[in-house]
Backbone:
C-alpha cells in the first residue's frame, strides 16, 4: 500500500521520479517543467506556496480510462469524484472529457452544475445527506442517489413524496471486503460507517420498491481509495453480482451497478493501479448481468495532474540526525502527509540542485504542530535557503483539503495548458481571513 511510514526500498532518485511522471521533465536551463511550462516562471510571478494543475494530464487520464473500458467491451458511465478536486476549472475539463460527477454534498452538487455538468450525469453519494441536500438533488433532477442506510431510505422517501417527485436510487452495499489500503481511506469493511450491511441489502431493496417517491434501480459499492491490486475489486464485485442475481430471483428488477472508484496511483515506487485490469475485473464479474455500469474515479484522474510549489525558508541544522528543511508550504496547504502518513515525491525546481548528491533530510512546514511534516529522513539533493521544490501528485486531496490554520492564507492555484498557464485562484489576501468575522456589540478593534 502507498500510505505507510516504513519502506524497504531506497527513496526514488530525481531521475526515477521523473521517469514515473511523464508530464514532468528537467530542462538544463529552465529547470523542472510541467508539460511545456517552467515551474520556476510560475513561482517567480505568483510566489509560493502555489498549486499547479496540468489540463493535458486530466484529459489524457480521462481518455485512458474511457479507452480501457471500451477496449474491454464495456459501456461504463464515469463520474469524477468531486471530493478529490472541486475547482471549477478542473470540473469543466473532466466534463469536457466525457465525465459526469460523483458528489457527496449539496455544495459539490452546485459546483458541478456551475461547471457545466448536466444533472443527468450527477450521482449523489455520502452517509449523511441533509433534508435540504436531498431536496436540492430532487429539484435538480440528478441521475441517482446512492442511499447508505435504512434511515436515509425513509427520509428520502418522505422528502420526495412531500415534493411530489420520484428519483432513482441505488443502495450502497458494504461488502465487508478489505481493500488493503490505509485504515483511514478504507470504506468497505464491516465497522466502517459506509454502506448497508450485505445481509440487509435485499430486504431494504424490497422496502425501497414499496416506498413512495423512490425508484430502486440497483446497487452501488465503494471499498476504499488508493487501491493498487485487483483482488479486493474482484471480491467486492463478485458479492454484488450475487446480490443482483438474488434480487432478481426475488422478482425485483435491477438495472444499475455503480462500481465505485478508488484506483490508486504511483506516489513512490509501488506501481499504478491499472484501468485495463480494472476493466477486466468489471467485465469478468459483472459483464454478464445486463446492467448499466458506472465508476467514480477521482484520485487516479487528478492526483498526477498537480504539484505544490514551495520555497525553503531555512535549513535548520541539528546536533544529531537529519537537518530540517523548513518550507513555506505547510499542513494547512497539503494535509495528506500529516493525516495519512502519505508519501509524496519532492523534486527541486532548479536543474543545478537536481543533480547534486543526495542527503537525508526532514522536510517540514512552519505550522506550530509536530505533525506538520512532509517527509522524514528523505533522500534529497541538499536544499538551501531560497531553493524551490515541487511536491508531486497533489492534484487530488490537495488544495481541496486546505485550510487557513495559523492564519495562513489559501495558496494561489494555476492551470497549465500546453505551454500556457493562467491563475485560476488568486492567493488569498491576509485581510480576507477576517473579512466575514463580526465583533460582538460594543467591542472595537484598535487602529
Residues:
Amino acid at each position: 500500500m502507498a500510505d505507510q511510514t516504513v519502506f524497504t526500498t531506497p527513496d526514488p532518485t530525481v531521475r526515477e521520479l521523473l521517469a514515473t511522471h511523464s508530464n514532468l521533465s528537467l530542462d538544463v536551463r529552465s529547470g523542472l517543467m510541467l508539460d511545456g511550462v517552467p515551474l520556476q516562471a510560475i513561482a517567480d510571478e505568483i510566489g509560493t506556496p502555489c498549486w499547479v494543475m496540468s489540463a493535458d494530464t486530466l484529459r489524457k487520464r480521462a481518455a485512458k480510462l474511457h479507452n480501457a473500458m471500451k477496449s474491454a467491451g464495456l459501456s461504463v458511465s464515469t463520474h469524477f469524484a468531486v471530493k478529490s478536486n472541486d475547482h471549477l476549472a478542473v470540473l469543466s475539463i473532466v466534463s469536457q472529457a466525457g465525465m459526469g460527477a460523483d458528489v457527496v454534498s449539496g455544495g459539490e452538487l452546485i459546483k458541478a452544475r456551475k461547471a457545466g455538468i448536466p444533472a443527468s450525469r450527477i450521482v449523489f453519494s455520502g452517509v449523511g445527506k441533509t433534508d435540504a441536500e436531498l431536496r436540492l438533488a430532487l429539484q435538480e433532477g440528478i441521475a441517482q442517489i446512492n442511499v447508505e442506510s435504512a434511515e436515509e431510505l425513509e427520509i428520502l422517501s418522505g422528502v420526495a413524496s412531500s415534493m411530489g417527485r420520484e428519483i432513482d436510487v441505488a443502495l450502497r452495499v458494504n461488502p465487508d471486503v478489505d481493500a488493503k489500503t490505509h485504515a483511514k481511506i478504507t470504506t468497505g469493511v464491516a465497522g466502517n460507517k459506509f454502506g448497508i450491511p450485505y445481509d440487509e441489502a435485499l430486504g431494504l431493496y424490497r422496502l425501497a420498491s414499496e416506498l413512495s417517491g423512490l425508484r430502486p434501480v440497483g446497487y452501488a459499492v465503494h471499498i476504499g481509495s488508493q487501491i493498487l491490486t485487483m483482488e479486493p475489486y474482484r471480491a467486492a464485485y463478485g458479492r454484488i453480482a450475487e446480490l443482483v442475481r438474488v434480487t432478481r430471483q426475488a422478482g425485483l428488477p435491477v438495472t444499475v451497478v455503480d462500481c465505485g472508484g478508488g484506483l490508486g496511483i504511483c506516489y513512490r515506487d509501488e506501481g499504478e493501479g491499472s484501468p485495463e485490469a480494472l476493466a477486466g475485473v468489471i467485465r469478468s464479474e459483472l459483464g454478464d448481468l445486463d446492467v448499466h455500469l458506472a465508476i467514480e474515479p477521482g484520485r487516479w484522474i487528478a492526483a498526477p495532474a498537480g504539484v505544490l510549489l514551495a520555497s525553503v525558508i531555512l535549513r535548520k541544522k541539528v546536533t544529531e540526525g537529519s537537518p530540517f528543511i523548513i518550507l513555506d508550504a505547510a499542513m494547512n496547504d497539503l494535509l495528506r502527509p500529516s493525516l495519512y502518513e502519505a508519501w509524496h515525491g519532492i523534486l527541486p525546481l532548479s536543474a543545478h540542485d537536481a543533480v547534486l548528491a543526495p542527503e537525508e533530510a526532514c522536510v517540514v512546514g512552519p505550522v506550530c504542530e509536530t505533525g506538520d511534516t512532509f517527509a522524514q529522513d528523505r533522500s534529497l539533493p541538499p536544499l538551501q535557503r531560497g531553493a524551490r521544490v515541487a511536491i508531486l501528485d497533489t492534484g487530488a486531496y490537495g488544495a481541496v483539503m486546505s485550510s487557513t490554520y495559523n492564519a495562513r492564507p489559501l495558496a494561489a492555484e494555476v492551470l497549465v495548458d500546453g505551454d500556457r498557464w493562467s491563475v485560476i485562484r488568486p492567493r488569498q489576501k491576509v485581510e480576507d481571513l477576517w473579512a466575514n468575522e463580526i465583533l460582538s456589540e460594543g467591542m472595537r478593534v484598535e487602529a
Notes: Residues 182-189 have pLDDT under 50 and may be disordered. The chain has two domains: 14-54+303-434, 55-302. The first helix runs from residue 14 to 19. The CA atoms of residues 125 and 145 lie 6 Å apart.
